[in-house]
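Would you kindly consider the sequence and fold I have copied below?
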Amino acid sequence: MAKNTDTPANPFADWYENVQKMVGGSFPAVDLKSLNEAGQGNMKAMGDVAKITATALQDIVKQQQAIATQAVAEWQATAGKLAKGEAQTVLTGSLETFRSKAEEAAKNFGDLSEIARKAQTDIWGILTAQFEKNLGKK
């Protein structure tokens, strides 16, 4: 049968055949099973990292939505009081409201930071464990 000249030759075929001839058909210095297991472990670790990241982002977005919803509701309530002519009531409580909202904002920032910190710690733990496993430390 004639050789098909339409398909380009595999440039690695000759190299691979020559290497096999030199090492006797195998790569004794390379533990393919360990390489495969490390690759599978790496992929699992990356999947775990992706899940943690997605969960953390969802939690942060939910928290931000709750904060925004509460702020809009409070703004609407204040606007309603002003529309009813209750400006004196709004102004009388404004200093206390400002103080409580500043404290609430600080707490909210702390909560959001904690979600991000926990995700970062969990991710670093997964990556470190996988790296040490690949190096044979665990």
Q: What stands out?
A: The chain is about 80% helix and 0% strand. Residues 57 and 116 are 8 Å apart (CA to CA). The radius of gyration is 31 Å.
